[in-house]
Amino acid sequence: MGLRNSTVYGIVWSVGQELGAKFAGFVITIVLARILSPAEFGLIAMLTIFIAIGNSLLDGGLTSSLIRTTVIDQKDCSTVFYFNLIGSLLIYLLIFFTAPLISNLYHQPILTNVVRVYSLTLIINAFFGIQQTLLIKEMRFKVMAIIQIPAVIGGGVLGIVLAKLGFGVWSLVWMSLLNAFISTLLHWFFSKWRPMILFDYKRFKKHFNYGYKLTLSGLLDKLYQNIYTIIIGKFYSPAQLGFYARADSTSQLPIGIISMAINKVTFPLFVKIADDGGQLVKVYRKVMLQVLFWMTPVLVSLCVIAEPLFRLMLTEKWLPAAPYFQILCISGIMFPLSAYNLNILKVKGKSNLFLKLEIIKKVISVIGIICVFPFGIYGLLYFQLFFSFFGFYINSIYSAKFINYPIGEQIMDILPTLVLASTVGLICYFLDRQLHLKYHFNDLFRIVTVGLIYFIGYLGLSFFIKLSAIIEFKQLILRR
User: Fold this and answer.
1) In this structure, what are the phi and psi dihedrals at residue 349, rounded to the nearest 5 degrees?
2) Helix 201-235 and helix 61-68, axial crossing angle in degrees, nearest 10
3) How many beta carbons lie within 10 A of that of residue 124, not counting itself?
4) DSSP letter, residue 73
5) Contact status, residue 30 vs residue 313, Cβ threshold 8 Å
6) Do 116 and 172 touch, CB atoms closer than 8 A?
């Protein structure tokens, strides 16, 4: 299978995997949100940063190093496997003994026991990290879809049953544990790799020297991504944090399906062509424009229909989350573009620069958050929106040093899509206001009508002005 065909095949199955898993998880979340209160979701959100940090330590640079290394063997895989496993045990013990401090931080005594049980997912996840890495390296996304979707559904069914039985926040805890357990079993079933009892120090040093900087960068990123959760959880009620967490996770649905799926394909793909500068720029540009072309209208249209969407899906009690969701949707547009620019640094082996960039951006971000904190939650959200564009700008400047694709050209390439999506979005927003205020149409009618008009208008104008992304997509489909 050629590079082009294998890339398209990988993207299709990667998107399918993310689409299936995210959609299943989304449906489960809707059911749970109708049963549980925002405060109970807020309690789990308070623990997000600690689990994210643990997973980042386990799934950071060493697995990326395995993907980047052209030829790996049993020594490489077993060494990283045992490092991750021992690391997961140490991290769990640290969380276990600091659990009372976590509960005191948020003034929620129930969190002591919740975090001790919930963080067991770190140990469970460590058992399939290498199998998952090998599947990504081999671009076997069809198998990953077969693994991930049943795990999400199995855990979700347990969570819904327990929520119905009145287990409250514990239904979310046991749901996550079962999800991780099923995922582990399926990874071991579908993967032929098994660890051997060996640990090669030289191989460990090789992967560690490349990966520890990415791990530190990942830690900084996780801290930054969850700093809003910490602040809101500390200074506001659990219900308020629940609204923010629901808005954030809902906005992440399209981002996860499109950008994260393609990111799994692009990193190993970029590695294969890292030494061919012209091909790397060509592929990078095509991927960036395609992701932006399809993800931007999804996020903008969701922003337009946020109010009826939240009321219809989650009931009136979750409506305060809708304005948060709108801001987060717009800030999410730039996420994949920033990620792809950082991937250039990773495939070029510039993990040192990667780490420096993350430190610089996070320091600036923390200063900004301190400045906007007096303006409340909306001050934090609008700063997050601003920083998403600023982060893309910084990442693009440095990645341009290693590929011939400067920031000016990137902006000129993405600007038509952003302007078109925003213009159609504004028109549909005022149309929705009329449907609601003047004609009093119900939520479902508003969502369907405005959504259809948006995408018909967006795609129609894209063809009319001959937007490069839609032309390239058309050529790709016809050539197949």
Assistant:
1) 75, 20
2) 130
3) 19
4) -
5) yes
6) no
CB neighbours of residue 262 within 10 Å: 26
Q: Is the pTM of this model over 0.85?
A: no
**What's the CA gap between 47 and 1, in Å, rounded?**
44
CA distance 433 to 460: 23
d(CA 78, CA 263): 25
> Token digits for 78?
């077993």
Dist CA 281 CA 303 (whole Å):
32
Q: Which contacts qualify for 356-365: CB closer than 8 Å, 24 or more apart?
A: 357/217, 357/394, 357/395, 357/398, 358/216, 358/217, 358/220, 358/221, 359/220, 360/394, 361/224, 361/387, 361/390, 361/391, 361/394, 362/220, 362/221, 362/223, 362/224, 364/390, 365/224, 365/227
Residues 6+ apart with CB under 8 A from 290: 469, 472, 473
Element (DSSP H or E) covering residue 435: helix 407-437
SS3 140: coil
pLDDT tens-place string over residues 348-382: 777 677 778 878 888 888 899 889 988 888 998 99
pLDDT in tens, 103-161: 998 888 999 999 999 999 999 988 988 888 888 777 676 777 788 888 999 999 999 99
Main-chain dihedrals φ then ψ at residue 457, nearest 5 degrees:
-65, -40
Q: How far is residue 433's CA from residue 440's CA, in Å, rounded to a whole number?
A: 10
Distance CA 291, CA 469 (A): 9
The answer to whether the CB of 433 falls within 8 A of the CB of 446 is no
